[in-house]
């Protein structure tokens, strides 16, 4: 087990923190070059977050949407992968400190640490309303939804049954819309015949949004199409209803309390604490302001991209927190750093090319917004969405597996991953009434 | 949500506790008949335990080897599934008490609650050496093995590295043999190129057995073939070494201590506590003695089968704790109860037909014992084993999925489910030295 020379490179490496869409794209753009690269992530896998809602609703298994980072990059000897959690950044000494183990020196540092959920100061809501940011959370949601039906089947109290079969999704963005549609389909199709005392098709799925309409990032006609599609699936859409409280019994909105056993939080997103690590000022959402070349203003040799960066487009508007933005920024920055480090070329400015913003609404409906007047909705949009997402999945084996599972599920309405494997909730959560 | 008549059947149902191979076979034999059946399990899925070691070694996902019980039985209106945990049995009142919810009255009761691991009185070993009985344990083992390599890659202390890359499997039965072989292959093939500082192919996999040889349930020549196959894969086989202690640092055997970060317990099995529920005497392994017709001696209308029953064959020997025994007993008892309840036919005695006892030793070697002199070993045995296990999997969709994944893995040596998703161990466990 001798340490090869790459362990102590002559020049400090390009260190990338975060192996999401952005960080991984930087690594891939530098892969196979003479630039030493170290990629740090606290997970050992790259997670295909846009399909996480399908794990939460029992359509896919975690391994279908996650790929070991080492495996993706195994054939590039210039890339070292470190599984670790960042504790801080020493800007003067040019080092990344981890919670365990030696600090990692950098020549250039790319911060691609994404975003987390925020409960707007109501952190105690988190225990009752998990968000959808990690495999663990997706598994928790899956367990709560399925467990609700199991407990309802066993209960003879009509009020308890109704509460157990009520699922509230908070937040009318793409995550909330996709979750609500997918849960409604789970109840109406996959589970329809499985119970004897309850009728899963009578489950209530409620989507609550504080603003005046769903999907504010999309044009109005696509958003109202999405709302109609959800309502056809049986989802109750409540716009203009800010959530006032969430506890073990359910969700409170102005003037009423909705008893619900499963609550899913899709309302708030906040950038990673990277600004704190760097000791610089962030914007209201915690994002780091970056220049057109994605360098962090005032901090030499540090770059940021994706959800954790505030990057303005040509019109002075912030780029949205989308996978395609992070991926394009990552590819751009990786290529730019390679040319800069090997040939001294100046870093060119980044320009975003909108490849279409999509949301899926149930089994055969989706909306696509390509900017301007170019839009698509319905079954063709769903097919396009499905095709794009299968192609985007990083690994060939996954592509085969996910395609087959989708096809199978599409033909049979079945869900293959309907397992309750998280330890059950404490009795207090199970029957608080 | 009116309760259908089947909710309050005229005659109390056949209640089956446990949806393993035995309990599920009883339910299937009664499916579609006029006999009301209630099947109770504390999980919502039937688990294909013989393939659990492949989940623990990242070859398969949990959903590949688990199928929702409701889904399996959805089309039989005479069968009700209850997700619940048994607290006790009221033999006089003919009721099964659950830890939550109303008790369930039975006309006949079938106990098919299987077995659990036992640490022979050393329960504190469990935290350091998980066994392989549940999806949660399989996930814990997968995480510890993979995390060991990650921590070793980050460590610069040779002794710590060696400990992190040492995996000890305790127990030379089929579970221990299959785990050791599968982990050796994971390290030697799937992970071989993924690291930069460590060489995963130098990982130590040690199989410790207290007895004089491996696989005592198999003929000697098959067992020694299995040992040679394991050693070819790089496994160190230590027979005649009873374990004296297990703690966070490793495993102690007579005269020496083996520092190891991952320890897997495959040594002891004990029947479920069903004898306690019934208030009757069990044998040394906790099994309930049953008559030839599988009825529990002295307890009217109660039957037991599978790992939790002590059932003697024609020669007066106890039948082994194998899936095929439980499955044959379940089918036999289900048919017998149907004829008895509908036509008053007496319960016939059960006779076991040995369909072959198998163990797999790595990617293309297995052993098969059909009784007498009929034996098989090597690649053909592996092919037979693979074919049998694919066919045995309960659900068609799973069959397709598992076949494809196996084929893929076979062609590429890859592991699709290599995710570290259990919360990491406390620092004390990570670097106790």
TrEMBL record, chains A, B:
<dbReference type="InterPro" id="IPR045024">
    <property type="entry name" value="NDH-2"/>
</dbReference>
<dbReference type="Pfam" id="PF07992">
    <property type="entry name" value="Pyr_redox_2"/>
</dbReference>
<keyword id="KW-0560">Oxidoreductase</keyword>
<protein>
    <recommendedName>
        <fullName>NADH:ubiquinone reductase (non-electrogenic)</fullName>
        <ecNumber>1.6.5.9</ecNumber>
    </recommendedName>
</protein>
<dbReference type="GO" id="GO:0050136">
    <property type="term" value="F:NADH dehydrogenase (quinone) (non-electrogenic) activity"/>
</dbReference>
<dbReference type="InterPro" id="IPR023753">
    <property type="entry name" value="FAD/NAD-binding_dom"/>
</dbReference>
<keyword id="KW-0520">NAD</keyword>
<feature type="domain" description="FAD/NAD(P)-binding">
    <location>
        <begin position="14"/>
        <end position="330"/>
    </location>
</feature>
<dbReference type="InterPro" id="IPR036188">
    <property type="entry name" value="FAD/NAD-bd_sf"/>
</dbReference>
<keyword id="KW-0274">FAD</keyword>
<keyword id="KW-0285">Flavoprotein</keyword>
<comment type="similarity">
    <text>Belongs to the NADH dehydrogenase family.</text>
</comment>
